[in-house]
Amino acid sequence: MSKDDHSHPNVMSKVQDAGDMKEERSVVSEKSETKTRKSFRERRLTPKMQELKDQELTQKEKRFKATYEKWRSNVRDIRTRLKQVCSESDMYNMMDEAEKLESELKEQYDRIRLQISPSQEIRRKIDACSAVTADLLQLMRVRLTEDEDEFDTVAERSRLRMLLDNEYARSIYGSTASRVTAPSCHNSKHLSESPSISAMRTEAAAQLAAKRAEVDMEAAIEAQRQQLRKMENQRDIDVIQARLNVYTEEEERDGTRSPPFSKVSDAHPFAHHIPDQERQVVQNETSLVKSLQESLALTRLPTPEPSVFSGDPLKFTEWSMSFKALIERRCSDPADRLFYLQKYIAGEAKSSLEGSFYRKDEEAYQQAWDRLNARYGHSFVVQRAFREKLNGWPKIGGKEYLKLREFSDFLQTCSNAMPHIKGLQALNDCEENQKILVKLPDWVTCRWNRYVTEQLDRGNDYPSFHEFASFVSKESRIACNPVSSLHALRHSAEAPPREMKRSKANTFATNVKPSIPSSSTTKSDPGQIKLGDAEKPKKWNTPTQNYNSDQCICCSENHSIHKCKRLMDMPVEDKKKCILENKLCFACLRKGHNSKDCRNRSTCSICKKSHPTPLHEDRSTAGESSIQGAVEESTSSLSCCVSGGEGGSTSMIVPVWISTLSAPDTETLVYALLDTQSSHTFVDQEVCEKLKAAMEPVKLKLSTMMGRDSVVKSQRVCKLKVRGFSSNVSINLPPAYTRDFIPLDRAHIPTCQTANKWKHLVSMAQEIPPLMDCGVGLLNGYDCSRALIPRRVITGGDYEPYAIETDLGWSIVGSAPQRVQAKDVTGFCHRVSVREMPPITPFAVIKALESDFADTKSGDRSISQEDICFLQILKERIQQNKEGHLEMPLPFKARPHLPDNKRLALVRLKHLKRKLDRDPKFKIDYVRFMEGVFKDGDAEKVENQAELEKVWYILHQGVYHPRKPGKIRVVFDCSARYEGTSLNDHLLTGPDLTNSLTAVLCRFRKYPIAVMCDVEKMFHRFHVSEDDRDYLRFLWWENGDTNSEPREYRMKVHLFGASSSPGCANYGMKHLASQCEKEYPSAASFIQKHFYVDDGLISVKSVGEAIELVKDAQAVCAKGKLHLHKFLSNSREVLDSVEVAARATEVKNVDLNHNDLPVQRVLGIRWNIENDSFSFKVSLEEKLATRRGIL
């Protein structure tokens, strides 16, 4: 062995070990030659990754410590606050905050545990967090079950001190725990260093001192409680004595009475033994007397009670607060609370709690409230209810000031609820504000736009919803000012509203009443019930009045003006004069509004059209009627001997309270007719308007005794409910329909006096109310069978009336038997008119067609104020632009504020794209036409954004002329409506400046040489002013590529589909002619008098005059960038003088020296140019047999 070997024994050992390992591996390899070899590699982090992991772990531990300190601070703060009186909401907030921080700390702990096993310190902290949080939550739950009014500070502090007894709590509460558990804190270090018997003795002494202090504290608390009970007993004695004094004072009203406090002092002899406190006792007794008087005054007020909650989330908060204040705090028994809860909920809310009312324990009561809070009180549910009501609010008209005020009140409600409902913060967004602005009148929107612009110009943000609500509130107050507003001035000028709805004629019954002879005086039977008798109620608080029907304004008799024979027999002019003098509506013959604002139009009983029956005008002449046969009228009369019975006829008519499901507290008292023969329920329209019920227009087919399948206009009303006059049982009505009146004779209404007339009905007489001062507002059909179900029936003899009780109350059905006397009786039946229609003659057909399609006579042309305004606008603003075109504005009635209809334009463009993709030929023609529009400069691309309310997107579509199938024309639809308006609604059409068709044709046939021409694209030759072009925007694809995104363009010219374009084009033509009248007098006269729209027709005496006229007319039109083309003439020399491009298509390829001239249409008439004669050719087409198709 060498020296080196001895000097390095480790090396030798390593070599030997290596040899051994090789031998072992060889042995193992020999034994496992048949096994599959596997390799394993341990994954090790790189230094960089390890460093990142360590940094991540450090960050997690830091976050854990920060969250722990935050939780610890919160717990200590909660313990401090619990030493004082805390409200229920404060304790719930503290519990939520503690649970939230505990959850965050556990989440941080789980993140650390996923990476590495937490340290002992971290595990100790998380365990302490869980235990301390659980102790605090348990303590606060106990506090919630106790009455805070009896809060005991000493006892509460003792209970909080018990939290420190646990070892895990001492590190949390810090110095507090050390002060309680170790009063001798300054000796703690010494005691810890010498764990001897003396230390243990010191600790035991400290515990003994703490226990003695606790016993002393409990004794002091008990003494204070005894003192408190003594004071309470003394207070009860003083209150009883004070009550006795008040009662004594009430009895001694006639004499001089001593002050109340003197009697109180006499009643307490022990007070004389404390002379130093006598004055204080007297003052206390005086205050007690005053408090007792106030409490007695409060007992005389009506008992407050919560409203009935039916499932509206917007009313849940108000209802729950009232229920807890008036019921829950005064009632401690869970069974009683559940009873009242069941009493004060209804509808959907009551159905959701059906299972909770089978139990009567506290848990069931809490479960019921938890379900109500989750379904109706959750902030998300409430904010959704606010948003849905806001989005569903109808559009407010410009003169609906009261509806504006109602909407303003709701906006204020949303604004007040916004701080408490976070979801309503979205209303501050400008997009949401825009959705609300659509519902406001235009004048309010303009003022708000001005206010917003001022705020933005100052550098401020878009105004908040609170500012918007305050703004609308101010505007509504201005609009509804009771003195100086337009609303007040308009109502002061109107006639006062009628106090009571007029009676309507009953068209279902025939009344038979005794007539009194004029020569004798007849005494009425005392037992007979008369129409209009005043009835004095006995036990009912509702006053009654005599029922008087409305007087007819025309003849002052007691009948409806709709049945006035005098008005029917008046000539038409006298009828109009009578209606105007009495300020009646022509649509319903009522006061207070005009026919254009009438919402309750009458239906004629003769022709079933929309006008009152007295204004019906028969078109057949008197002569024809006399030839075919006179009108036969018969009035049936009934004569017999009948005596007055013991009672009148009555039916199932009951007074009810009607309301809507959305506003159950707003009720209206009406009479309801329970009709078992009506298939549907009907309600008076005025009642629906008073209740502000939602109505939907519909048309009905009514079949009655008066006719079958009569089509009438009505409105559908849903979500109504009724209850009896003295009943709390509500019945939900099915969808009902409105009528302008419900026929009923008030003499048929049963009352308590009616029941007293019959012995078998006396027992229920007090259950029927007297005659009410209300109208008939409801006809209940058998589609609501619940209201018709008999609950009790009282019958008498075979011919006596019977009483029937339903859920809506008692009614009496039947009439009294009548005794025959020697007295004549006349029965008044409804008037029966039998009219034989005359046979239809050709003359009658022509007259009927002329009445519907009558042309305005040339001599009857009149000009209106709007026409004058149209001419004034064009006269002041017509000009010639840089391109040489005449430029005119869009003649608006008033500058409009239009809604943004871009969404509609995109939808229509999408439909157009599908049509273009389906029809390649249609696409090629459409794209070629649009390219021509851009090439001619009739449209331009929109480069900048205009004001939102000054933009309108025109819809366009392609149409082929039936006689020109290969030529397409793209029509811009200016009549397309969006949100109830269109561009044509705001444009003035102007006066009729078109020359008479007959006059143009007659002058065309006057002289031998005839010339005809046409203005190429006449409307597109007149441009629109720059300020108005944004009203003519449209969407199109650039270069006609339908696969690209659509771009915005706008038209520069007056459109073919605009209602103002014909007037503007005719005015422009005449304006251009007047400008050139001195230079080209004949051409100016030709343009002004011989053009029918864009077709010019004239005849002259000679060829030379015709050639010169053609050149002058082209020169005049060229000055305004107008192009005359399609020239035709019966003179070949005149045609030869016109260049070929300007000739009509039919004669461009005609050899004027040899070929005959073709036949051409002139204003719809065939003109044989070669013979210079008009001809007609009738080609029958298959069309529908309508008036338009026949004409």
UniProtKB/TrEMBL annotation:
Keyword terms: Metal-binding, Zinc, Zinc-finger
Molecular function GO labels: nucleic acid binding; zinc ion binding
Keyword Zinc-finger part of the UniProt annotation: yes
A Pfam family assignment: DUF1759
Source organism of this protein record: Nothobranchius furzeri
Biased composition (Basic and acidic residues): 17-36
Region (Disordered): 1-47, 510-542
Protein name: LOC107391303-like protein
Signal peptide: none
Segments forming domain CCHC-type: 585-600
Bias-annotated ranges (Low complexity): 513-524
